[in-house]
Amino acid sequence: MKVLEMSDTSARIVSISNRIAVLSNDLKNNLLDMDANIKKLKLLKKDVYFDYVGTARRNYQKVLAEIMELDTRRETPAGYWRHIDQNFGGHIQSGISMEQVMDEDYIGIDADVMSQWMAVIVVARKDNENRIEQALIQINHLSRQVIRNCMIGFGFSIVVGIMGVWFISRSIIVPLNKLKSGLKLVSDDNYTYEMDITSKDEFGELAAAFNDMNRQLKADDEIRSDFIATLSHEIRSPLSSIRESVNMLTEEFFGPVNDKQKKFLTIAADEIARITSLLNHLLDASVLVSVSGAKKRPVSPFDPNELVQSAISSITPGAETRGIRTKFKKLEQPPMVKGNEKEIMQVIINILDNAVKFSPDNSRVDIRLTRGPGKHFLTCGISDEGPGIPEDKKNLIFKKYYRAREVREHMDGVGLGLNIARRIVQANGGEIFVENKPDKGCTFSFTLPVC
Ligand SMILES: Nc1ncnc2c1ncn2[C@@H]1O[C@H](COP(=O)(O)OP(=O)(O)OP(=O)(O)O)[C@@H](O)[C@H]1O
Ligand SMILES: [Mg+2]
User: Fold this and answer.
1) I want to staple 108 with a disulfide (CB 3.0 to 4.6 A). Which of 38, 89, 281, 395 is the partner?
2) Domain 300-449 is of which CATH architecture?
3) Which residue from 285, 296, 299, 298 is spatially nearest to 189, judged by alpha carbons?
4) Whole-angstrom Cα distance, residue 449 to residue 37?
């Protein structure tokens, strides 16, 4: 503001001084005109020169008055102009007549006076030029100062802007990202994430609420798992007694049984076997805790081709009863995979089990091992010709106890197979995902790190 004010003042000085420079030139010319025309009048005695003298005199007075008025507008008036008016004003003789001029004794403006007069005008004009120069120097200096201030201001704004962006990213984006990762883990049934936001703002409150929710979900999950484990354990004991009793009856331990009784005993034995398998599967839920890394799990290198082959062999009898064929495309020169062999076998069996369970009779299940993604992983893909997975259910199928509505009534299962598979794959450093095939069926793929 100060700089602008000073610059304004300097510009005003330049403008006044420029005007004075023009006017002072007129003043000098009118004075010379006056002197020259007096001389011409005396010599040539023509009226017209008397008029010229009058015009030059009036112009001189008008111009000088204007210069003095402009001079007073300056902060430090020059004073030369007032001096010219006071010291030489008397030589102008405003009311003089033509006869007086023509008189022998009248000599006009004395030559000495004239040269002093002109000298003072020259000094005054010089002073005026100096003032213009000083004001221009001042303006130049001020404009450089303005540019410097602008540059400093610009640099300062950039620094403030960068700090603002940094502050916004720290205070909004970082907590939002943490929240996003936390929510992603919760949607994967992982309740171990604790958000470390301690700020006193809305994000702090949100983080506290999130951590409370996580703790509550974790506690609920543990209660549910414990309950299921206890329940299945409690049911398994009486169930084995029933199975033993049925076996003894079938084997005619207590006397002969007829064919009809045998038939019903076989049905009972089959159903007992089915329920026992379901209970075993449910008990696997307690395995999940160890899979998430709480306990030490044995990890060793193994051949993936061999592992996949033995998983296929274990489901083949069941698949063949429905005319489902399996085709395995092995990996040429397979690298060794590092992981828990038993757990990974469980993953392949769970996926193959589903492929067989949800495929139509006489269809085909393809199993394929490939290198990638990247150098450090291999991928196992299992494709079937079943109904596929609806797009909006792709995330749900990996959740505990989820089973599609269509399969609930007429198919066995508790909805744990894929959840267990995902936990095992993640605990072994891989990822699992599903894609629908363009025609029919879907492909479940999982990755594993190679040695
Ligand atoms: N290959 C598949 N084709 C079509 N739907 C599938 C397939 N695999 C899984 N699903 C769907 O995903 C759900 C969850 O599968 P998951 O293996 O977890 O449970 P389940 O097979 O029903 O029971 P469980 O495996 O515990 O015996 C299934 O109920 C089914 O709706
Ligand atoms: Mg299953």
Assistant:
1) 38
2) 2-Layer Sandwich (3.30)
3) 285
4) 114
Residue 416 CA, ligand 2 centroid: distance in Å = 7
pLDDT in tens, 384-409: 999 999 998 998 999 888 888 888 77
Which residue is associated with the tokens 């079938």? 250
Alpha carbon nearest to ligand 1 atom 7, residue? 354
- Average pLDDT for residues 165-194, to the nearest whole number? 85
Report the alpha-carbon angle 400-226-314, nearest 5.
55
A 10 A CB-CB count for 341 gives 19
Cis peptide before 238 (omega within 30 of 0): no
Q: Which residues line ligand 1 (CB under 6 A)?
A: 281, 350, 354-355, 358, 384, 386-387, 389, 397, 402-404, 407, 413-419, 442
Rounded Cα distance between 241 and 250, Å, is: 14
Asked whether the CA dihedral 264, 269, 270, 276 is positive or negative, the reply is: positive
Alpha helices (runs of H) in 359-450, residue ranges in sequence order: 405-408, 417-427
CATH class of 202-291: mainly alpha
Could you tell me the residue ranges of all domains in the chain?
2-152, 202-291, 300-449
Q: What is the pLDDT of residue 290?
A: 47
- Global pTM reads 0.60
Architecture of domain 2-152: Up-down Bundle (1.20)
85-121: pLDDT as tens digits: 998 888 887 778 888 888 878 888 888 988 999 999 9
- The DSSP secondary-structure symbol of 450 reads B
Name the residue with the closest Cα to ligand 1, atom 17.
417
